Amino acid sequence: MLRTVILAASRSSQVERLLATVPFTRDVVRRFVAGAQTDDALRATRELVADGLAVTLDNLGEDTVTPEQATSIREEYLRLLSMLSAAGLTPAAEVSVKLSALGQAFDEQLAYDNARAICAAADAAGTTVTLDMEDHTTTDSTLDILAKLRKDHPSTGAVLQAYLRRTESDCRELAGAGSRVRLCKGAYSEPESVAYQSARDVDKSYVRCLNILMSGDGYPMLATHDPRLIAIGEDRARWYDRGPDGFEFQMLYGIRPDEQARLVGEGYTVRTYLPYGEDWYGYLMRRLAERPANLAFFARALASR
Ligand code: FDA
């Protein structure tokens, strides 16, 4: 019911205009999104890097429906990468890319071509690209595109979602040398046939996947704000003797900044996922709609300011 209401609101420009005037909405946007322009993203990146954090930038926009939209998102990434490099912010800053923003839903080849151009620009800028993971209907396509990209751009990273039943097996496939895998719980509403439904089962899967990645030869990126999972990550880092160059923690911009600072203080590599762009309304509303539990997640983050 809640999900239906949020999804309906996410398509309504009237609700968008109305919400934009509500102080709570403005607080949420400011807290979780760097700003609308590339310059805002650069400024926020500079501040985070000065605090000892690494950054991955996401140009907001997904579910692109025309090749022109996909091209414009690709061009923004190319511009962003050249600005990051010129500002001396690479390799501390890399980019995260949603293939749906690059045309995956209507032309897989176009999405691959666009992603390849972004990977080439990242290589030139001396940094990396990580492919975000969207709903389970896109997992095979995204992993296929990843495999093709990694032939020429081996540092291209993937996201795997612990709530999917298939993910343990995907972790085994991607735990080899040179592979970069961001492990998250998963943010979409998925059916029981493909995904664990209870928080406990998702957490148990996360730990199994974390063990596979941390004991493997790749570069694990543990994306979670969950204190228990972070503690397990710290424990496995000691057990497998992985230092700051051997793995990293990742968290979303605006969520548990104190914990991000604590981990930096402990000597860990911590990367903040930093969204920016004009499409903030869709981003926040879709996050909520994908998983209504995220409403509590955002509210908790605001309450902990
Ligand atoms: P969860 O939301 O279950 O929170 C666990 C616990 O963390 C809480 O019970 C609480 O103890 C603590 N906590 C959380 N917020 C807190 C706060 N503000 N203050 C204090 N404690 C707090 N998803 C996806 O499907 N595809 C993707 O590509 C990505 N990419 C991605 C990148 C990065 C860097 C991150 C961090 C996350 C993603 N995600 C994602 C989102 C991810 O799947 C997930 O929805 C959120 O990270 C929330 O899950 P947590 O692991 O934080 O646990």
What does this protein structure show overall?
This protein has 305 residues and is an alpha/beta fold. It has 13 helices and eight strands. It has helices at 2-10, 13-20, 23-32, 38-50, 67-86, 108-125, 139-152, 167-173, 199-215, 227-239, 257-265, 280-290, 293-303; strands at 54-59, 93-97, 129-131, 157-161, 180-184, 219-223, 248-252, 270-276. It has an eight-stranded parallel barrel with strand order 1-2-3-4-5-6-7-8, surrounded by seven helices. Helix 10 (227-239) links the parallel strand 6 and strand 7. The protein is globular and about 55 Å long. The mean pLDDT is 91. Bound molecules: dihydroflavine-adenine dinucleotide. The site of dihydroflavine-adenine dinucleotide has 25 residues, from strand 4, strand 5, strand 7 and helix 13. Dihydroflavine-adenine dinucleotide binds at residues 132-133, 159, 161, 182, 184-188, 223-227, 250-252, 255-256, 273, 297, 300-301, 304.
Topology pattern, helix = H, strand = E: HHHHEHEHEHEHEHEHEHEHH
Q: If you consult CATH, what is the topology? A: TIM Barrel
Number of DSSP E strands: 8
Count every helix, treating DSSP H or I runs of 4 or more residues as helices. 13
Domain count: the total is 1
Any idea of the CATH class?
Alpha Beta
Strand content: 5-15%
Bound molecules: dihydroflavine-adenine dinucleotide
Indicate the structural class: alpha/beta
From the N-terminal CA to the C-terminal CA, the straight-line distance is 29 Å
Radius of gyration: 18 Å
- Helix proportion of residues, in percent? 40-55%
